[in-house]
């Protein structure tokens, strides 16, 4: 963990190093992935069965058996403890409500020249949702990826989840049913993405693919981009906590560790105007680490990427935060909205001393799929907008053409596009009224 | 040009061939482009000066001279004929009005559990706009790319345009000034994208890059993706015209040719319920080709990629259109809105017998940067949304945590993330009121 102080001479260099700390573990898997995609495109279902047997050690009698049956989902859902089922329901209800409130309205306007223009939102027909298997299978991510698609009006949501050695996570299947997933396949890795993007006899292709995955999945999504839409490739998670000395140091320590326990490459940064408070938080972090189950991961993240920055005032904190453009931002001061109003770049903000980021990971309502690695400068979290697209339209009659057609003809001629000009000129002065 | 009829036995195969006709001319320039980017990242301005001298045959005394001066823009703007200046003004006014009407509203809601959630839109800080040089320099594209950014509230819009042998297009500079571009650089190709994405001493880096370009520019944008946001890589243009027999065949022929004259890889498709009308349109296309300045390009496009499809009824036409998901769609029937209501996938629609697509290329108002190659299934045209991003936020106090914290703790434990659970549990039952 690094200590930084804006008053120190070397601060700017240290802070720049923090900004440049990519924390990426890029592995070159392009060739392997393109080979798998080529195989699935050429041999279809047969390739899926073979790859799943070899890579996930699960033998499907045939490709049809790759699909998880409704009975299997029933059984898995029934096996979920009541307390967990209720917690899932609370999360689903709140996530759905927040995303429903985001739904945009269509636009229609008629101007003084008599031209009517508009914009209409339509849902994507079919979406593919990738869910990692094993330990990384998070039911909360199933809700966060599938519910916005369902709220947007996507008719078909096809989920792929690897089941290594046949292992199924009941809570993941329960979340998928709750979120309105319409089909689930025992498929993982690049072969799952290939099946979703290009389709096979069994797996119909989709129009857009979302969901987190390992390096093979990320590269497969890159290679499928253009053929289908994809979400952004997520990097390691991060949090910036703005906290004054009036907070409980243990609260802040736990918030920093909640981020750190995700991944050794995760990053937790505390920005405070109280150096003494910073020291108390650092002590609390060490104390909590001594008993934390995932202490090895969280400790490595905190040691390698963690930071405590002391600032002279909150305007400095706001400026540093905008440069960091963090995925998660907690604002733990008396009037958090005053600081939020000055934040231009952040994926998601959590306001108040009693509003930890982890609340947003599960039940607050806003999405937990967020832009990482400073991409909040230009990117946003997952939302209904990821599953909608726009069709703009123009309605004009002969009168409208007479009013504005001339400008179009002039510009078309200036650009040397005569057929453009003629197609407009041919309508000017004429009449579109049927005799 | 191909004739198709839904009544023919071989129709489905022929139509599938039409769908699979990628029309892409992919050239492998990855290595060249990554070399140029590496050079600009390593040597900065010196590399920009050398590459511009070598590739665009324009010698800058130093990197500062790469920036087009305000005086040069004044002179260029003053040299634009009044008629063209007025046409640009009409276009800018209408494009700005339509995009201003798109601006989304922030969201804020408080639920029964007392949790306040919201969503706030912020503009990207800095945008880079690439404009091709030479013949492909379209002033209309400058308006269509820059105005949505300005309307969204982007403070800095940096434009790069190559000036081969020093040649400047006055109308392009006039459009840039009208659209609120804040700086213009004599830079083209991959070196322009590298300068915008990574920055040099002279060129400050941007957060997002938009605008069309050749294969080198497209590949450079691909390689910069993640470092900055990029718009979608546009393919060859296309139009689908739905027209009944009551239309003037010449009008439809000119609309098909307006698309075809862009590029030999462009595609124009007429779908009609009147085979005789289709034949008259085909004849009119040949007649117009005999006098069209860009007949060589338009003729090649029509011969290789054009099609006339005869349908039994309009429901068939709607189904085929949704499968084509065209960039541009003209609906030339008596009640075009009835058909539009059934179209799920199209970039932009033009309604009525007197509303040619070319009107939308210049002055209608909606953007002319649209999804090509069937990507309208999941993608949208350029809009203010491309220059805005969202920050979601949550505000909760001790009471709210008591209400929903339990569900978060349960799910965090189920996912094996104990620090997540503890960070929530630590706030439950406590009080956030200051003593």
UniProtKB/TrEMBL annotation, chains A, B:
Pfam families: Histidinol_dh (PF00815). NAD(+) binds at residues 130, 191, 214. Zn(2+) binds at residues 259, 262, 361, 420. Binds 1 zinc ion per subunit. Substrate binds at residues 237, 259, 262, 328, 361, 415, 420. Pathway: Amino-acid biosynthesis; L-histidine biosynthesis; L-histidine from 5-phospho-alpha-D-ribose 1-diphosphate: step 9/9. Keywords: Amino-acid biosynthesis, Histidine biosynthesis, Metal-binding, NAD, Oxidoreductase, Zinc. Its EC number is 1.1.1.23. It is an enzyme of class 1 (oxidoreductase). GO terms for molecular function: histidinol dehydrogenase activity. Transmembrane segments: none annotated. It comes from the Bacteria. The active site is at residues 327-328. Its cofactor is Zn(2+). It catalyses: L-histidinol + 2 NAD(+) + H2O = L-histidine + 2 NADH + 3 H(+). Catalyzes the sequential NAD-dependent oxidations of L-histidinol to L-histidinaldehyde and then to L-histidine. Belongs to the histidinol dehydrogenase family. PANTHER family: HISTIDINE BIOSYNTHESIS TRIFUNCTIONAL PROTEIN (PTHR21256:SF2), HISTIDINOL DEHYDROGENASE HDH (PTHR21256). This is Histidinol dehydrogenase. The lineage of its organism: Bacteria, Pseudomonadati, Pseudomonadota, Alphaproteobacteria, Acetobacterales.
